[in-house]
Amino acid sequence: MSKQFDVVVIGGGPGGYIAAIRAAQLGFNTACIDEWKNKDGKPAPGGTCTNVGCIPSKALLQSSENFEEAGKHFGDHGIKISGLEIDVAKMLARKDQVVKQNNDGILFLFKKNKVTFFHGRGSFVKAGEGGYEIKVSGPTEDSITARHVILATGSNPRALPGAAFDEVNILSNDGALRVPQVPRKLGLVGSGVIGLEMGSVWRRLGAEVTVLEALPTFLGAVDEQIAKEAQKAFTKQGLKIELGVKVGEVTNGPKGVSVAWTNAKGEAQTLEVDKLIVSIGRVPNTTGLAADAVGLKLDERGAIVVDDECRTSLPNVWAIGDVVRGPMLAHKAEEEGVAVAERIAGQHGHVNFNTIPWVIYTSPEIAWVGQTEQQLKAAGVKYKAGTFPFMANGRARALGDTTGMVKFLADATTDEILGVHIVGPMASELISEAVVAMEFRASAEDLARICHAHPSLSEATKEAALAVDKRTLNF
């Protein structure tokens, strides 16, 4: 007999598991289906983010940053080190342990919140009077029925035509996290976030890294001034960045990968690398969902069609995260998951796309919220800009990391903050203040009048807000 639930979530990534927990908190009998598994076959909820994305990449970034600090910067502090070397196997083992801790944490949260977990792949069977019949295919077969279904099936990496991922030489984010030894030469096709982050990991550990980007500008989604500052920093570190290129034939052989490409001048080139990371975007994942069985509508990209409140074309079926429109960000999926659970309960769930922060965890970090200067110009919005460099910040000097700046964009008439952009130390943490300010529709003057601790990196945020009115105090 089919097991009955009020809410069933298909997918246990950031959007899915959070949606399930919030639904359970609201009193619904809730289940979550997720098929991800560890090497031992045990459940590994958390989706791409926890298993082969955000979490493991941050673990490796931390390890590689520690290595570079020890090798290049500890001497400035009077700390002498000899015989420095990297144990890649141990570094990867630590990364795996961090991932497992997060997997186990999610399973604990399910138990704590009384969410029933099914390990396997969920797919539609049919719609009926009692809701939707869903089949769970996995270690054990189950049939469950749900009054409401939340689809949170995420996304998959986009492959280069004619260059399928083998996760040995041609790598997606998954393979890039499992390289068993430091490659001598590493290539990146596309300057996507994960590619840049993983490229920076292996560059710090000794790899010669080349980035092939089709667009004529670096990090086109980032504020242009910030992107140029980041490109300058990355180039100084040794990252070779080629813009406006056209990638041709990719040959995968036993000794590595050969990439034929044409530079911005139209000149034919060849890049020979040990490993090639492809970071050209991601595609919505609806494989195995059996959307046709119930008439679920997909768009031309394969994404699930939803309205502004994440309702699909089917009654009581919702979709969130990477599998729908909007930015493919873990925290965006989480916010949608909470909002949908609350909407099912008759509440007014809230997601403000205009204040979703973006972060690239390179070194220097890049973070922003709101609109870029080029977007404001294109829209004809009159604005004021203010910047403050970290080289004038006392805490940044003490840290020994003065690269970058904070940039504010505010409405020329009302002074309302329209965007904040940061490249520099701990940008991922500093951006939160800007998100809060924008959610409350604060002005640059509001933030400039708030007392910030001294010495702190956050003082650069205050000073950039002051710079909007051309009255910085420390620069």
TrEMBL record:
<dbReference type="Pfam" id="PF02852">
    <property type="entry name" value="Pyr_redox_dim"/>
</dbReference>
<keyword id="KW-0560">Oxidoreductase</keyword>
<dbReference type="InterPro" id="IPR001100">
    <property type="entry name" value="Pyr_nuc-diS_OxRdtase"/>
</dbReference>
<comment type="similarity">
    <text>Belongs to the class-I pyridine nucleotide-disulfide oxidoreductase family.</text>
</comment>
<keyword id="KW-0547">Nucleotide-binding</keyword>
<feature type="binding site">
    <location>
        <position position="213"/>
    </location>
    <ligand>
        <name>NAD(+)</name>
    </ligand>
</feature>
<dbReference type="GO" id="GO:0050660">
    <property type="term" value="F:flavin adenine dinucleotide binding"/>
</dbReference>
<dbReference type="GO" id="GO:0006103">
    <property type="term" value="P:2-oxoglutarate metabolic process"/>
</dbReference>
<keyword id="KW-0285">Flavoprotein</keyword>
<dbReference type="GO" id="GO:0005737">
    <property type="term" value="C:cytoplasm"/>
</dbReference>
<dbReference type="InterPro" id="IPR023753">
    <property type="entry name" value="FAD/NAD-binding_dom"/>
</dbReference>
<dbReference type="Pfam" id="PF07992">
    <property type="entry name" value="Pyr_redox_2"/>
</dbReference>
<dbReference type="GO" id="GO:0004148">
    <property type="term" value="F:dihydrolipoyl dehydrogenase (NADH) activity"/>
</dbReference>
<feature type="binding site">
    <location>
        <position position="281"/>
    </location>
    <ligand>
        <name>NAD(+)</name>
    </ligand>
</feature>
<dbReference type="InterPro" id="IPR006258">
    <property type="entry name" value="Lipoamide_DH"/>
</dbReference>
<keyword id="KW-0676">Redox-active center</keyword>
<feature type="binding site">
    <location>
        <position position="322"/>
    </location>
    <ligand>
        <name>FAD</name>
    </ligand>
</feature>
<dbReference type="InterPro" id="IPR050151">
    <property type="entry name" value="Class-I_Pyr_Nuc-Dis_Oxidored"/>
</dbReference>
<keyword id="KW-0963">Cytoplasm</keyword>
<feature type="disulfide bond" description="Redox-active">
    <location>
        <begin position="49"/>
        <end position="54"/>
    </location>
</feature>
<keyword id="KW-0520">NAD</keyword>
<protein>
    <recommendedName>
        <fullName>Dihydrolipoyl dehydrogenase</fullName>
        <ecNumber>1.8.1.4</ecNumber>
    </recommendedName>
</protein>
<keyword id="KW-0274">FAD</keyword>
<dbReference type="InterPro" id="IPR036188">
    <property type="entry name" value="FAD/NAD-bd_sf"/>
</dbReference>
<dbReference type="InterPro" id="IPR004099">
    <property type="entry name" value="Pyr_nucl-diS_OxRdtase_dimer"/>
</dbReference>
<feature type="domain" description="Pyridine nucleotide-disulphide oxidoreductase dimerisation">
    <location>
        <begin position="356"/>
        <end position="465"/>
    </location>
</feature>
<feature type="binding site">
    <location>
        <position position="58"/>
    </location>
    <ligand>
        <name>FAD</name>
    </ligand>
</feature>
<feature type="binding site">
    <location>
        <begin position="190"/>
        <end position="197"/>
    </location>
    <ligand>
        <name>NAD(+)</name>
    </ligand>
</feature>
<dbReference type="InterPro" id="IPR016156">
    <property type="entry name" value="FAD/NAD-linked_Rdtase_dimer_sf"/>
</dbReference>
<feature type="binding site">
    <location>
        <begin position="328"/>
        <end position="331"/>
    </location>
    <ligand>
        <name>FAD</name>
    </ligand>
</feature>
<feature type="domain" description="FAD/NAD(P)-binding">
    <location>
        <begin position="5"/>
        <end position="337"/>
    </location>
</feature>
<feature type="binding site">
    <location>
        <position position="122"/>
    </location>
    <ligand>
        <name>FAD</name>
    </ligand>
</feature>
<feature type="binding site">
    <location>
        <begin position="153"/>
        <end position="155"/>
    </location>
    <ligand>
        <name>FAD</name>
    </ligand>
</feature>
<feature type="active site" description="Proton acceptor">
    <location>
        <position position="454"/>
    </location>
</feature>
